[in-house]
Amino acid sequence: xxxxxxxxxxxxxxxxxxxxxxxxxxxxxxxxxxxxxxxxxxxxxxxxxxxxxxxxxxxxxxxxxxxxxxxxxxxxxxxxxxxxxxxxxxxxxxxxxxxxxxxxxxxxxxxxxxxxxxxxxxxxxxxxxxxxxxxxxxxxxxxxxxxxxxxxxxxxxxxxxxxxxxxxxxxxxxxxxxxxxxxxxxxxxxxxxxxxxxxxxxxxxxxxxxxxxxxxxxxxxxxxxxxxxxxxxxxxxxxxxxxxxxxxxxxxxxxxxxxxxxxxxxxxxxxxxxxxxxxxxxxxxxxxxxxxxxxxxxxxxxxxxxxxxxxxxxxxxxxxxxxxxxxxxxxxxxxxxxxxxxxxxxxxxxxxxxxxxxxxxxxxxxxxxxxx
Length: 372
Known about the structure:
- This protein has 372 residues and is an alpha+beta fold.
- 63% of the residues lie in helices and 12% in strands.
- The relative contact order is 0.07.
Protein backbone atom coordinates (compact mmCIF):
# COMPACT_ATOMS: atom_id res chain seq x y z
CA UNK A 1 0.00 0.00 0.00
CA UNK A 2 1.34 3.45 -0.95
CA UNK A 3 2.05 5.60 2.13
CA UNK A 4 -0.16 8.66 2.59
CA UNK A 5 2.85 10.97 2.48
CA UNK A 6 3.81 9.68 -0.96
CA UNK A 7 0.24 10.11 -2.20
CA UNK A 8 0.19 13.72 -1.02
CA UNK A 9 3.49 14.44 -2.79
CA UNK A 10 2.21 12.87 -6.02
CA UNK A 11 -1.02 14.90 -5.79
CA UNK A 12 0.96 18.06 -5.12
CA UNK A 13 3.22 17.68 -8.15
CA UNK A 14 0.32 16.67 -10.40
CA UNK A 15 -1.73 19.69 -9.25
CA UNK A 16 1.24 22.03 -9.70
CA UNK A 17 1.83 20.81 -13.24
CA UNK A 18 -1.87 21.15 -14.10
CA UNK A 19 -1.98 24.63 -12.51
CA UNK A 20 0.94 25.83 -14.66
CA UNK A 21 -0.84 24.66 -17.82
CA UNK A 22 -4.13 26.22 -16.63
CA UNK A 23 -2.46 29.59 -16.00
CA UNK A 24 -0.89 29.51 -19.46
CA UNK A 25 -4.32 28.66 -20.91
CA UNK A 26 -5.97 31.59 -19.10
CA UNK A 27 -3.30 33.98 -20.33
CA UNK A 28 -3.79 32.71 -23.87
CA UNK A 29 -7.58 33.09 -23.57
CA UNK A 30 -7.10 36.69 -22.39
CA UNK A 31 -4.90 37.45 -25.38
CA UNK A 32 -7.43 35.83 -27.75
CA UNK A 33 -10.57 37.28 -26.08
CA UNK A 34 -11.55 39.14 -29.25
CA UNK A 35 -11.19 36.08 -31.51
CA UNK A 36 -13.95 33.70 -32.51
CA UNK A 37 -15.67 31.26 -30.17
CA UNK A 38 -14.10 28.38 -32.13
CA UNK A 39 -10.57 29.54 -31.33
CA UNK A 40 -11.36 30.06 -27.66
CA UNK A 41 -13.02 26.65 -27.42
CA UNK A 42 -9.94 25.08 -29.00
CA UNK A 43 -7.73 26.76 -26.40
CA UNK A 44 -10.00 25.52 -23.59
CA UNK A 45 -9.94 21.96 -24.96
CA UNK A 46 -6.19 21.87 -25.45
CA UNK A 47 -5.53 23.42 -22.03
CA UNK A 48 -7.82 20.91 -20.33
CA UNK A 49 -6.19 17.92 -22.01
CA UNK A 50 -2.65 19.22 -21.44
CA UNK A 51 -3.39 19.90 -17.77
CA UNK A 52 -4.40 16.27 -17.33
CA UNK A 53 -1.54 14.91 -19.44
CA UNK A 54 1.08 17.03 -17.68
CA UNK A 55 -0.01 15.71 -14.29
CA UNK A 56 0.22 12.11 -15.46
CA UNK A 57 3.62 12.72 -17.09
CA UNK A 58 4.97 14.21 -13.87
CA UNK A 59 3.66 11.21 -11.92
CA UNK A 60 5.34 8.72 -14.26
CA UNK A 61 8.65 10.53 -13.88
CA UNK A 62 8.41 10.59 -10.09
CA UNK A 63 7.44 6.95 -9.69
CA UNK A 64 10.73 5.63 -11.08
CA UNK A 65 9.07 3.37 -13.60
CA UNK A 66 11.20 1.33 -15.96
CA UNK A 67 11.47 2.37 -19.59
CA UNK A 68 8.85 -0.12 -20.75
CA UNK A 69 6.20 0.89 -18.21
CA UNK A 70 6.94 4.61 -18.74
CA UNK A 71 6.62 4.21 -22.51
CA UNK A 72 3.31 2.37 -22.12
CA UNK A 73 1.93 5.01 -19.73
CA UNK A 74 2.97 7.88 -21.98
CA UNK A 75 1.52 6.14 -25.05
CA UNK A 76 -1.80 5.65 -23.29
CA UNK A 77 -1.84 9.28 -22.11
CA UNK A 78 -0.96 10.62 -25.54
CA UNK A 79 -3.61 8.48 -27.23
CA UNK A 80 -6.27 9.45 -24.70
CA UNK A 81 -5.28 13.12 -24.95
CA UNK A 82 -5.48 13.04 -28.75
CA UNK A 83 -8.96 11.51 -28.65
CA UNK A 84 -10.06 14.02 -25.99
CA UNK A 85 -8.85 16.98 -28.10
CA UNK A 86 -10.66 15.53 -31.12
CA UNK A 87 -13.91 15.24 -29.16
CA UNK A 88 -13.41 18.79 -27.84
CA UNK A 89 -12.87 20.09 -31.37
CA UNK A 90 -15.99 18.28 -32.60
CA UNK A 91 -18.13 19.71 -29.82
CA UNK A 92 -16.67 23.15 -30.49
CA UNK A 93 -17.56 22.89 -34.18
CA UNK A 94 -21.14 22.01 -33.30
CA UNK A 95 -21.42 25.01 -31.00
CA UNK A 96 -19.88 27.30 -33.62
CA UNK A 97 -22.28 25.93 -36.24
CA UNK A 98 -25.26 26.65 -33.96
CA UNK A 99 -23.91 30.15 -33.34
CA UNK A 100 -23.54 30.65 -37.12
CA UNK A 101 -27.18 29.62 -37.63
CA UNK A 102 -28.28 32.24 -35.10
CA UNK A 103 -26.11 34.92 -36.72
CA UNK A 104 -27.57 34.15 -40.17
CA UNK A 105 -31.08 34.39 -38.71
CA UNK A 106 -30.27 37.81 -37.22
CA UNK A 107 -28.87 39.02 -40.55
CA UNK A 108 -32.00 37.90 -42.42
CA UNK A 109 -34.66 40.49 -43.23
CA UNK A 110 -37.10 39.99 -41.67
CA UNK A 111 -35.73 38.11 -38.68
CA UNK A 112 -37.09 34.61 -38.13
CA UNK A 113 -36.09 32.36 -35.22
CA UNK A 114 -33.91 29.42 -36.35
CA UNK A 115 -35.91 26.27 -37.08
CA UNK A 116 -33.07 23.91 -36.14
CA UNK A 117 -32.53 22.87 -32.50
CA UNK A 118 -30.04 25.07 -30.65
CA UNK A 119 -28.25 24.71 -27.32
CA UNK A 120 -30.35 25.92 -24.41
CA UNK A 121 -28.49 29.24 -23.99
CA UNK A 122 -28.59 30.05 -27.71
CA UNK A 123 -32.26 29.03 -27.90
CA UNK A 124 -33.01 31.44 -25.05
CA UNK A 125 -31.08 34.17 -26.86
CA UNK A 126 -33.05 33.43 -30.05
CA UNK A 127 -36.35 33.83 -28.17
CA UNK A 128 -35.20 37.11 -26.64
CA UNK A 129 -34.13 38.36 -30.07
CA UNK A 130 -37.52 37.39 -31.47
CA UNK A 131 -39.27 39.34 -28.71
CA UNK A 132 -36.94 42.30 -29.25
CA UNK A 133 -37.65 42.32 -32.99
CA UNK A 134 -41.39 42.24 -32.27
CA UNK A 135 -41.01 45.25 -29.95
CA UNK A 136 -38.95 47.07 -32.57
CA UNK A 137 -41.54 46.35 -35.25
CA UNK A 138 -44.34 47.60 -33.00
CA UNK A 139 -42.34 50.72 -32.15
CA UNK A 140 -41.67 51.31 -35.85
CA UNK A 141 -45.37 51.01 -36.63
CA UNK A 142 -46.21 53.46 -33.83
CA UNK A 143 -43.56 55.85 -35.11
CA UNK A 144 -44.96 55.68 -38.63
CA UNK A 145 -48.51 56.21 -37.36
CA UNK A 146 -47.37 59.15 -35.25
CA UNK A 147 -45.49 60.67 -38.17
CA UNK A 148 -48.56 60.29 -40.38
CA UNK A 149 -50.65 61.93 -37.67
CA UNK A 150 -48.17 64.77 -37.41
CA UNK A 151 -48.25 65.38 -41.14
CA UNK A 152 -52.04 65.31 -41.08
CA UNK A 153 -52.03 67.64 -38.09
CA UNK A 154 -49.78 70.14 -39.86
CA UNK A 155 -52.11 70.10 -42.87
CA UNK A 156 -55.23 70.60 -40.74
CA UNK A 157 -53.68 73.30 -38.55
CA UNK A 158 -52.37 75.14 -41.60
CA UNK A 159 -55.87 75.15 -43.06
CA UNK A 160 -57.56 76.11 -39.80
CA UNK A 161 -55.08 78.92 -39.16
CA UNK A 162 -55.18 80.28 -42.68
CA UNK A 163 -58.95 80.85 -42.75
CA UNK A 164 -59.35 82.93 -39.56
CA UNK A 165 -56.11 84.81 -40.23
CA UNK A 166 -57.32 85.77 -43.69
CA UNK A 167 -60.64 86.93 -42.26
CA UNK A 168 -58.99 88.97 -39.50
CA UNK A 169 -56.60 90.53 -42.00
CA UNK A 170 -59.47 91.56 -44.24
CA UNK A 171 -61.43 93.06 -41.34
CA UNK A 172 -58.33 94.81 -39.95
CA UNK A 173 -57.53 96.31 -43.36
CA UNK A 174 -61.13 97.43 -43.76
CA UNK A 175 -61.00 99.16 -40.38
CA UNK A 176 -57.58 100.65 -41.08
CA UNK A 177 -58.53 101.99 -44.55
CA UNK A 178 -61.85 103.40 -43.33
CA UNK A 179 -63.86 101.17 -45.67
CA UNK A 180 -66.26 100.62 -42.78
CA UNK A 181 -67.03 103.51 -40.50
CA UNK A 182 -70.49 103.05 -39.07
CA UNK A 183 -70.49 102.17 -35.41
CA UNK A 184 -72.47 98.94 -35.72
CA UNK A 185 -70.20 97.45 -38.40
CA UNK A 186 -67.04 98.49 -36.56
CA UNK A 187 -68.39 96.90 -33.39
CA UNK A 188 -69.26 93.71 -35.27
CA UNK A 189 -65.79 93.56 -36.83
CA UNK A 190 -64.13 94.04 -33.46
CA UNK A 191 -66.29 91.31 -31.95
CA UNK A 192 -65.51 88.95 -34.80
CA UNK A 193 -61.77 89.58 -34.52
CA UNK A 194 -61.97 88.91 -30.78
CA UNK A 195 -63.78 85.62 -31.39
CA UNK A 196 -61.19 84.48 -33.91
CA UNK A 197 -58.36 85.43 -31.53
CA UNK A 198 -59.97 83.38 -28.76
CA UNK A 199 -60.36 80.45 -31.16
CA UNK A 200 -56.73 80.64 -32.27
CA UNK A 201 -55.60 80.90 -28.65
CA UNK A 202 -57.56 77.73 -27.90
CA UNK A 203 -55.90 75.96 -30.81
CA UNK A 204 -52.45 76.98 -29.59
CA UNK A 205 -53.34 75.78 -26.08
CA UNK A 206 -54.49 72.43 -27.50
CA UNK A 207 -51.26 72.06 -29.47
CA UNK A 208 -49.21 72.77 -26.37
CA UNK A 209 -51.20 70.25 -24.33
CA UNK A 210 -50.85 67.60 -27.02
CA UNK A 211 -47.10 68.18 -27.30
CA UNK A 212 -46.74 67.64 -23.54
CA UNK A 213 -48.73 64.41 -23.77
CA UNK A 214 -46.66 63.07 -26.66
CA UNK A 215 -43.40 64.10 -24.98
CA UNK A 216 -44.42 62.42 -21.72
CA UNK A 217 -44.03 65.67 -19.76
CA UNK A 218 -47.67 66.02 -18.70
CA UNK A 219 -47.56 66.58 -14.94
CA UNK A 220 -50.51 65.40 -12.91
CA UNK A 221 -51.30 66.99 -9.54
CA UNK A 222 -53.53 64.34 -8.08
CA UNK A 223 -56.07 65.02 -5.40
CA UNK A 224 -59.12 63.22 -4.06
CA UNK A 225 -62.26 64.34 -5.88
CA UNK A 226 -65.70 62.86 -6.40
CA UNK A 227 -66.83 61.47 -9.72
CA UNK A 228 -70.15 63.31 -9.36
CA UNK A 229 -68.29 66.61 -8.98
CA UNK A 230 -66.37 66.03 -12.23
CA UNK A 231 -69.57 65.22 -14.11
CA UNK A 232 -71.37 68.27 -12.69
CA UNK A 233 -68.50 70.62 -13.60
CA UNK A 234 -68.26 69.23 -17.16
CA UNK A 235 -71.99 69.71 -17.70
CA UNK A 236 -72.01 73.20 -16.21
CA UNK A 237 -69.02 74.25 -18.32
CA UNK A 238 -70.63 73.18 -21.60
CA UNK A 239 -74.22 74.19 -20.84
CA UNK A 240 -73.93 77.59 -22.63
CA UNK A 241 -72.70 75.88 -25.83
CA UNK A 242 -75.55 73.36 -25.69
CA UNK A 243 -78.13 76.07 -25.04
CA UNK A 244 -76.87 78.19 -27.94
CA UNK A 245 -77.19 75.21 -30.30
CA UNK A 246 -80.54 74.06 -28.95
CA UNK A 247 -79.19 70.75 -27.65
CA UNK A 248 -80.54 69.23 -24.44
CA UNK A 249 -77.68 68.42 -22.05
CA UNK A 250 -78.27 66.05 -19.14
CA UNK A 251 -75.82 64.90 -16.50
CA UNK A 252 -76.07 62.51 -13.60
CA UNK A 253 -73.79 60.43 -11.42
CA UNK A 254 -74.40 57.77 -8.82
CA UNK A 255 -73.17 57.88 -5.22
CA UNK A 256 -69.97 59.86 -4.80
CA UNK A 257 -67.02 57.69 -5.88
CA UNK A 258 -63.64 59.06 -4.78
CA UNK A 259 -60.89 59.32 -7.38
CA UNK A 260 -57.20 60.23 -7.09
CA UNK A 261 -56.86 62.37 -10.22
CA UNK A 262 -55.78 65.74 -11.50
CA UNK A 263 -59.18 67.43 -11.45
CA UNK A 264 -58.16 70.12 -13.92
CA UNK A 265 -56.72 67.77 -16.54
CA UNK A 266 -59.39 65.09 -16.23
CA UNK A 267 -62.09 67.77 -16.26
CA UNK A 268 -60.60 69.04 -19.51
CA UNK A 269 -60.74 65.57 -21.03
CA UNK A 270 -64.38 65.15 -20.02
CA UNK A 271 -65.31 68.61 -21.31
CA UNK A 272 -63.66 67.77 -24.64
CA UNK A 273 -65.93 64.75 -24.95
CA UNK A 274 -69.05 66.74 -24.03
CA UNK A 275 -68.18 69.62 -26.39
CA UNK A 276 -67.53 67.11 -29.16
CA UNK A 277 -70.91 65.48 -28.49
CA UNK A 278 -72.78 68.80 -28.48
CA UNK A 279 -71.16 69.97 -31.72
CA UNK A 280 -72.13 66.79 -33.53
CA UNK A 281 -75.67 66.54 -32.17
CA UNK A 282 -78.36 68.31 -34.20
CA UNK A 283 -80.68 70.86 -32.65
CA UNK A 284 -83.38 69.36 -30.42
CA UNK A 285 -81.07 66.38 -29.87
CA UNK A 286 -79.89 65.16 -26.48
CA UNK A 287 -76.47 64.65 -24.97
CA UNK A 288 -76.26 62.58 -21.79
CA UNK A 289 -73.35 62.39 -19.37
CA UNK A 290 -73.62 59.52 -16.87
CA UNK A 291 -71.18 58.56 -14.15
CA UNK A 292 -71.12 55.33 -12.18
CA UNK A 293 -69.21 52.16 -11.32
CA UNK A 294 -68.65 49.23 -13.66
CA UNK A 295 -66.56 46.15 -12.83
CA UNK A 296 -64.93 48.01 -9.97
CA UNK A 297 -63.87 50.91 -12.21
CA UNK A 298 -65.18 54.47 -12.23
CA UNK A 299 -67.05 54.88 -15.50
CA UNK A 300 -68.28 58.01 -17.30
CA UNK A 301 -70.24 57.76 -20.55
CA UNK A 302 -71.04 60.62 -22.95
CA UNK A 303 -73.84 59.72 -25.38
CA UNK A 304 -74.89 61.91 -28.31
CA UNK A 305 -77.23 61.87 -31.30
CA UNK A 306 -74.66 62.37 -34.06
CA UNK A 307 -76.05 59.62 -36.28
CA UNK A 308 -73.18 57.23 -35.59
CA UNK A 309 -69.63 56.80 -36.80
CA UNK A 310 -68.68 54.53 -39.73
CA UNK A 311 -67.29 51.26 -38.37
CA UNK A 312 -64.04 51.72 -40.31
CA UNK A 313 -63.50 55.09 -38.61
CA UNK A 314 -64.09 53.94 -35.02
CA UNK A 315 -60.46 52.83 -34.40
CA UNK A 316 -59.20 56.25 -35.63
CA UNK A 317 -61.52 58.54 -33.71
CA UNK A 318 -58.86 59.37 -31.11
CA UNK A 319 -56.06 59.89 -33.65
CA UNK A 320 -54.53 63.34 -33.95
CA UNK A 321 -56.41 65.58 -36.40
CA UNK A 322 -58.97 62.89 -37.27
CA UNK A 323 -62.33 64.28 -38.33
CA UNK A 324 -63.91 61.50 -40.31
CA UNK A 325 -67.01 61.87 -42.40
CA UNK A 326 -69.19 64.95 -42.74
CA UNK A 327 -71.34 63.78 -39.86
CA UNK A 328 -68.35 64.13 -37.54
CA UNK A 329 -66.93 67.37 -38.89
CA UNK A 330 -66.96 69.98 -36.12
CA UNK A 331 -69.27 72.84 -36.82
CA UNK A 332 -67.08 75.21 -34.88
CA UNK A 333 -63.79 74.41 -36.57
CA UNK A 334 -60.78 73.43 -34.47
CA UNK A 335 -57.76 71.35 -35.26
CA UNK A 336 -59.35 68.01 -34.35
CA UNK A 337 -57.24 67.68 -31.20
CA UNK A 338 -59.91 67.40 -28.51
CA UNK A 339 -60.36 63.63 -28.59
CA UNK A 340 -56.63 62.98 -28.94
CA UNK A 341 -56.02 65.16 -25.88
CA UNK A 342 -58.78 63.37 -23.96
CA UNK A 343 -57.20 60.00 -24.69
CA UNK A 344 -53.76 61.19 -23.63
CA UNK A 345 -55.06 62.59 -20.33
CA UNK A 346 -57.12 59.49 -19.51
CA UNK A 347 -54.24 57.12 -20.28
CA UNK A 348 -51.88 59.28 -18.21
CA UNK A 349 -54.23 58.56 -15.26
CA UNK A 350 -53.97 54.82 -15.90
CA UNK A 351 -57.46 54.69 -17.41
CA UNK A 352 -59.00 53.67 -20.73
CA UNK A 353 -61.18 55.49 -23.21
CA UNK A 354 -63.28 54.04 -26.00
CA UNK A 355 -66.15 54.73 -28.37
CA UNK A 356 -68.97 52.66 -29.84
CA UNK A 357 -72.11 53.32 -31.83
CA UNK A 358 -75.20 53.23 -29.64
CA UNK A 359 -78.79 54.33 -30.23
CA UNK A 360 -79.14 57.51 -32.31
CA UNK A 361 -75.44 58.30 -32.10
CA UNK A 362 -72.33 57.08 -30.36
CA UNK A 363 -71.20 56.60 -26.78
CA UNK A 364 -67.77 57.61 -25.48
CA UNK A 365 -66.68 55.81 -22.32
CA UNK A 366 -63.97 56.68 -19.80
CA UNK A 367 -62.89 54.07 -17.26
CA UNK A 368 -60.66 55.01 -14.35
CA UNK A 369 -59.35 53.12 -11.31
CA UNK A 370 -60.97 54.32 -8.07
CA UNK A 371 -58.96 55.85 -5.26
CA UNK A 372 -57.11 53.28 -3.15
